[in-house]
Write a structure and sequence with these properties.
Number of domains: 1
Number of helices: 4
Helix content: 25-40%
Low-confidence stretches: 84-99, 102-120
Oligomer: single chain
Strand order of the largest sheet: 1-2-3-6-5-4
Mean pLDDT: 79
Number of strands: 6
Shape: globular
Strand content: 25-35%
Length: 157
């Protein structure tokens, strides 16, 4: 199990780098070529959400990305340290192809309800859920972790 970790300043320009790194690591991990666009898009969406939250609430904190090559899965974890996502996102993406499990939200934790362009945060989660095989969203009092995974053929070392 190899993990590549990346931390980046919350600037939109760095999302492109995160997508490129994720795609390269996914390819090396044995993710089928037909799934690489899905990996790229899902990672881009998750990182964009994190960057937006960080710019609004904690611009000095980096966004964290972990890419893990498991035996038969490629897992991506995007971690932000800003409280931003609505608690009801899981119920709003039931139509997605991937199961979305949302950890319990601490009582009293405030959550935003819309992106900067007025779109609900759940729209981005729906996009991610439609692209990844499995999505787990964990909200804590200090932020959100979006964990996504895809099947892989194992390490292509």
């Amino acid at each position: 199990m190899a993990t590549v970790e990346l931390s980046f300043t919350p600037l939109p320009a760095h999302v492109r780098t995160a997508r490129l790194v994720a795609t390269a690591v996914a390819r090396h991990s044995g993710v089928d070529e037909s799934l690489l666009d899905e990996v790229r898009l899902a990672v881009g969406e998750a990182c964009s959400r994190a960057v937006e939250g960080h710019q609004l609430h904690c611009p000095a904190e980096p966004v964290r990305l972990a890419l893990t090559d498991l035996a038969d899965r490629f897992e991506v974890e995007v971690t932000d340290t800003c409280v931003q996502a609505p608690a009801e996102v899981a119920s709003q993406v039931a139509g997605g192809k991937a199961p979305v499990r949302l950890a319990a939200q601490p009582a009293g934790a405030g959550r935003g309800t819309a992106d900067g362009d007025g779109l609900p945060h759940s729209l981005g989660i729906a996009v991610i859920a439609g692209l990844a095989d499995d999505v787990v969203i964990t909200e804590t009092e200090v932020g959100t972790v979006i964990r996504m995974s895809w099947p892989s053929a194992g390490s292509a070392s």
